[in-house]
Design goal:
The complex is a heterodimer of chains A (about 475) and B (about 400). Helix content of chain A is about 25%, strand content about 25%. With about 475 residues, chain A is α+β, with helices and mostly antiparallel strands. Classes of the chains: A alpha+beta (about 475), B alpha/beta (about 400). At the A-B interface, strand 18, strand 19 and strand 20 of A face helix 4, helix 5, strand 5 and helix 9 of B.
Chain lengths: ~475, ~400
């Protein structure tokens, strides 16, 4: 038996109201849909969002038992440097794991799911984390500009105590070029919308659904939820009717609240479906992107075991208005921002240091003194407790999953930032230890001494001149 | 048995350039300007200088590294020269090298010179990039100098239950007092009085510090010539004697261990204690006539009063409101206007502080003259409150 043991998701806090976009872009045309889209913070990308979703998924699970990590995206920061490897380091997985990136198509998320499921069925892996994330940009005023949203989903696949069994799949491949981007380009090119709708979605989704139900001798009515990708609200609704689904069976595509999250779209929808699922429910998932992957799951009694996940509900509720289209353009570097001459001085990134200190920098693993119990981050060979000072008597100690309290802070308008002021401070961890960190996802006016925070894996800085985007851990106010 | 350096060394000459945005001067110009005044004040010839200590914190944006920058600029004749650096305590570090060299008996006459040329960068605020090494920016916060100290203000307000308004008012009084003094000083960069209202309403740089809570970035240089105490009266009737010179550096416990309260600077407290012991000072509040402290930010000066035991812990606000540290108060602090009015050319500041104490003790402080000062103290700090270096130097007649 192979299936999902746990799930998680991440939807960025900022939401951009499409009415605001419309005001900025009226000279080009009309918004294809209303509502709002989720916009990643300036310090997020597909990798950081995947780490957030995977962290949500791993709560309650033993990370040291995970044997693989597959990551899907079409919007990676690095084109050469495995993204799954960065995520694995950030999750502090052991090093003898299998990692792989799945990319180039919005159906890569389901490709990763099926590859992981097959590895487990074949017995070559006992467990595998699958995470999918997209943080896409498009020409201003384009369909993608309005429709796309940023987000990530994560699933831990295994063979014991699954909450949903992966029963079967049916895949198609069609070299249907709805959107394309050449190597080295940042912005995609989209074909005709009507063609994509009528010759694409309206044909291929039903083809995959019918292929799946015929293969397993099922009917559409057997499913509590049918999840299918579609970037267009009208077409998404029309497909529901074409497939003969009741409104209750159609899983909300979240286009009006999050946007089209690319590889993550159907998988975020799956997380949402699982949040409300009951034992015995059958759920179908159909992705789209040069063909489709369709697969289905049966929810087990173990579904009630899942507690305390941010998943989709809590992520949806945690929202702050971005406030302007220009800020979105600045965050995604679609428009160069003036951050001053001071901001032009970039840190030299030594990849020797990143390699040597990977567990410390990316896994947020510091040291704990074996003599007096004082935790330290960064790693300290000599204990900082003035009454101890033990040398090389320590063990690795992870801070990434520890809560902390703000000891002191400032919000700084001088430190170069794309979203000033830059907030940072000293935080004291539960269980001991104190560290100086940047803050993120916070309102400068709401920070207080004593405020509880949790850690989040983010971009620390980008040095375009030297092709170095570096990651690290920041503190984030805890949201219920 | 080590016995300290009290009364073993005297300062017989000092020089100090005009500080400010010296777009008219390069680093070599500043070095020469300070040296020429210093040599003339000492009344000796260049060839009598036996060794030199040269302080500059950011040579990469001005003269470059090594001791050759000083030797070649001043055409010093193949004498020993050591370049020193200790963040913003660099100026005092240069003095320390020269003073200890003479106290050790190795030399009779030494030169200490500090300089910094910051204004060729093209932007405001200290250039921090690279100053913390390759790894720190990867793992620590994207901080600025004002931000590093602003955090101490946040914690001080929190610990002593000061509302943001009351806390900022306390800090505003500190800066207003310094500006009043700087207005009397021809060598200062900023020479205008500023009111408490203007300071309170200034734009925020790093909360809770506003524009006038922060010293400016400027260029300057200062120098001292020191000699054996028993030779000093040969050169002038009014030498200034070094009573103590102590340094303390953070152990790491402030930023990595949870004992530090965030509202004081531990190295300042410890350097003060060591300096008072060496100089034989039993009651700093009563015995220290005047001081130049490191007011890079208003909060630094306020907290320093407590660290140096001029004020009791948590009580500096009362002393500030009573005008204790005003020029006409019982214990004047920053009589020359401080970093607040001079700005902070890093390598020079420690020696600029000593220049004011020297002139005050000689009765040559002009409109800023304090009545009959006996003991002066300089407090020169480098780094941030949580990773810090403090040098305390006490001088007298």
């Amino acid at each position: 038996m192979v299936g999902i043991k746990s799930y998680g998701a991440h939807i960025p806090r900022f939401r951009l109201d499409r009415n605001i976009m419309q005001l900025a872009l009226l000279f080009l045309g009309f918004a294809p849909l209303r509502g709002e889209k989720a916009v990643a913070n300036w310090d997020e990308d597909s990798v950081t969002m995947a780490v957030a979703a995977a962290t949500d998924c791993l709560k309650g699970e033993d990370k040291d038992k995970v044997e693989g990590l597959y990551f899907a995206t079409t919007s990676q920061t690095y084109a050469l440097r495995q993204n799954a490897g960065i995520i694995s380091a950030a999750l502090d997985f052991k090093t003898n794991v299998r990692t792989a990136d799945f990319t180039d198509a919005t159906k890569s998320g389901t490709a990763a799911m099926l590859a992981a499921a097959d590895a487990i069925s074949a017995g070559s892996l006992n467990s595998c984390m699958v995470t999918a994330a997209d943080c896409r940009v498009s020409k201003i005023g384009s369909n993608g500009d309005y429709t796309y949203g940023d987000g990530a989903a994560a699933f831990l696949l295994g063979k014991d105590d699954v909450i949903a069994k992966i029963e079967g799949s049916y895949s198609t491949s069609h070299d249907f070029v709805d959107r394309r981007r050449l190597q080295g380009e940042r912005l995609e090119h989209m074909w005709e919308e009507r063609f994509i709708r009528d010759a694409g979605y309206m044909k291929f989704i039903p083809e995959a659904v019918m292929g799946l139900v015929k293969k397993y001798d099922l009917k559409a009515q057997d499913f509590s939820k049918v999840i299918y990708a579609c970037a267009f609200t009208g077409a998404h609704a029309a497909l529901g009717k074409t497939l003969g689904l009741t409104p209750e069976q159609v899983q909300d595509p979240l286009l009006a609240t999050v946007g089209d999250t690319g590889v993550a779209q159907t998988l975020i929808m799956l997380v949402a479906a699982l949040e409300d699922a009951k034992p015995g429910d059958k759920i179908m998932v159909v992705s789209f992107g040069q063909g489709c992957d369709a697969f289905y799951l049966t929810v087990t009694d173990n579904i009630t075991r899942i507690k305390d996940k941010k998943a989709v509900k809590r992520n949806l509720a945690n929202k702050v208005a971005l406030g302007s289209y220009e800020k979105y353009l600045a965050f995604r570097k679609l428009m160069p921002s003036e951050i001053g001459i001071r901001g032009e001085e970039t840190v030299f990134t030594s990849f020797s240091i990143i390699s040597r200190d990977s567990r410390e920098l990316y896994g947020m693993v510091g040291t704990k003194c074996k003599k007096c119990g004082t935790p330290s981050y960064p790693v300290q060979r000599i204990c900082p407790n003035p009454d101890c000072g033990a040398v090389d008597q320590n063990e690795p100690y992870r801070f990434a999953d520890k809560r902390a309290e703000i000891f002191t802070y400032t919000s700084d308008f001088l430190a170069p930032s794309i979203d000033p002021p830059a907030s940072y401070g000293l935080i004291d961890f539960e269980g001991g230890g104190r560290a100086m960190v940047d803050f993120t996802d916070c309102d400068a006016n709401a920070i207080k001494v004593g405020m509880p925070v949790e850690m989040s894996f983010r971009i620390k800085y980008a040095d375009e001149k030297r092709a170095a985007v570096n990651y690290g851990w920041k503190a984030m106010p805890i949201v219920a | 048995m080590a016995e300290g350096i009290k009364d073993k060394v005297a300062i017989i000459g000092m020089g100090c350039t005009k500080f400010g945005e010296r777009f008219d001067a390069g680093p070599q110009d500043l070095i020469v300007e300070a040296f020429v005044e210093c040599l003339a004040d000492a009344g000796i010839e260049k060839k009598q200088i036996q060794a030199a200590w040269w302080g500059v914190h950011m040579p990469d944006i001005s003269v470059g590294r090594g001791a050759t920058a000083l030797g070649i600029t001043l055409k010093l004749p193949f004498i020993p020269i050591t370049r020193v650096e200790n963040f913003c305590a660099t100026g005092s570090e240069a003095l320390r090298g020269a003073v200890y060299a003479v106290a050790s008996g190795a030399y009779d006459i030494c030169l200490a010179l500090g300089m910094e040329k910051l204004k060729d960068t093209g932007y405001g605020g200290l250039p921090l990039a690279g100053g913390l090494g390759y790894k720190t920016p990867m793992v620590s916060a994207n901080l600025s100098a004002p931000g590093g100290f602003a955090m101490m203000a946040t914690k001080y307000f929190s610990k002593y239950n000061l509302s943001p308004q009351d806390g900022k008012m306390m800090l505003a009084r500190v800066s207003a007092k310094s500006h009043k003094n700087g207005a009397l000083n021809p060598k200062a960069h900023l020479r205008k009085e500023i009111t408490v209202e203007q300071i309170m309403n200034a734009p925020i740089v790093a909360w809770p510090l506003g524009l006038f809570d922060c010293c400016g970035v400027s260029d300057g240089s200062a120098a001292a010539i020191v000699c054996r105490a028993d030779m000093a009266k040969k050169f002038r009737p009014d030498p200034v004697f070094v009573k103590s010179l102590q340094i303390s550096v953070s152990s790491g416990e402030e930023m990595m261990y949870t004992k530090w309260d965030g509202a004081h600077v531990e190295p300042a407290y410890r350097a003060g204690i060591a300096a008072y012991k060496e100089a034989g000072i039993k009651n700093p509040r009563e015995e220290i006539s005047m001081a130049e402290v490191h007011d890079c930010f208003s909060i630094t000066e306020a907290v320093t009063m407590e660290d140096l035991q001029f004020s009791a812990r948590g009580k500096v606000k009362e002393d500030i409101e009573a005008g204790r540290f005003n020029l006409d108060g019982p214990q004047p602090v920053q009589p020359d206007g401080g970093l607040k009015c001079f700005g902070h050319p890093i390598g020079a500041s420690g020696l600029r502080m000593m220049y004011e104490m020297y002139k005050q003790l000689q009765g040559k402080a002009d409109k800023r003259q304090i009545k009959d000062p006996k003991i002066g103290l300089t407090h020169n700090m480098g780094g941030f409150p949580f990773m810090n270096i403090v040098s305390v130097c006490i001088v007298g007649k």
